[in-house]
What does this fold into?
Amino acid sequence: MARSDLIINLVKAGVKGDAADVRATAEAIAADERAKKHTGVADRITRALNTTKPMNGNTQSRPGLRVRDGSGGIHRREPTRSINELYLEPFVRSACDELIEEQRRADVLRAHGLEPRHRILLAGPPGNGKTSLAEALAYELALPLFTVRYEAVVTSYLGETALRLKRLFDFVRTEPCVLFFDEFDAIGKERGDIHETGEIKRVVTTLLLQLDDLPSYCVLVGATNHPELLDRATWRRFEIRLNLDTPSAKQMTSYFSDNLRIFEETPGYTAKRLFEAVNPNNFSEAENFFLDVKRRIALAQGERDLRSILDERVKAFNERRYLPDEGDKDE
Ligand SMILES: Nc1ncnc2c1ncn2[C@@H]1O[C@H](COP(=O)(O)OP(=O)(O)O)[C@@H](O)[C@H]1O
Ligand SMILES: [Mg+2]
It folds into this structure.
C-alpha cells in the first residue's frame, strides 16, 4: 500500500475504534519507514505501539481521567498556536529553532551518536509568552502538549508526592510529547510549608532523577516567574535557558503596528503613539487591549469611528491599571 493509503487507513481504523486494525496499519507504516532507512521514526512507532496502554473496554474516557497511573497528573491537549504568532527576541527565536531542528532531525543526530536537546527552561515575568511558547514548541514538533497538574501531584504527604511524580514520568515517557511544568519552582517552594526537610529532599531528588531519565523524544519545558528559587542542581538540568523578559519598546511598537494594520479605517494614532498611550506591562495586556477594541468595534456595528473607540479604550485601560495582571497567578 502506498504511504498515504496507510495513513488514511490508520485514521479510519482509529475513528472506528478498531484497535487491531490500528496496530496492523501502524506496524505496516513502521515497516515502510524502516525500509526507507527512517529507523528513528520506525522505532518511535514501534515504541508507541508497545508502551502505550489501550483504553479500557469501550469507555470513551480520555486517558487523563485515569487516576491510578500517572496520567491523572497530566492535562493533555493538542497545540494550535504556531511559533510565528509570537513576538520573540531574536536570540529566543533562534534557540527555539535549534531545538525544533534537533528534534525534527533527531535521526540524523542519532546516526552520529548524538541526542537532540530536550530540556528548556523559560523564565520571566507573567504575560510574556512562557505558556504560549511551550504550546508553540509542541505545535512545531507536532506533539501533544502535556501540562503537569500540580493539584493532582503535590500532596502534603511528601512520600506520596514522590510516588505520584514517579508515576507521572512513567506515563509521560510512553510517547513523544512536550511536557510542560508551569511554575516549575512550585515543587521546591513547598519547602516553606513543610517541616520534614529529609522528605522534601526526597521529592526534589525524585524530580531531578526523573528529569535525568527523561528520554530525548519527550521535550521538557519548565516555566518560572521566579528563577532565583531554583537551586543550581535543578537549573543545570536544563540544556537551554531563556529569559522572556518584559518586551522592549521596539518589540511593542511592532506588536501595535501589526495589530493596527488589521483595521480597515485609519486609526488616527501611529503605532508608537498608541503603544505609549496604552503603555502595557506585557504582551498579555497589549493583547487584551486589542481584544477590547475589537469587541467595541463589533458592538458599534459601524456607528462609531475607530479613532473614538481607541481614545475610549486608552482611557479605560489607564483607569483600570491598578488591577493586577490576570496572568499573574503566582502572587
Ligand atoms: N511574546 C508574545 N507574543 C505574542 N503574544 C504574546 C506573547 N507573550 C504573551 N502573549 C499573549 O499574552 C497571553 C498570555 O501569555 P502567556 O503565554 O500565558 O504568558 P506567561 O505564561 O509568560 O505568563 C497569551 O494569550 C498570548 O497570546
Ligand atoms: Mg503562563
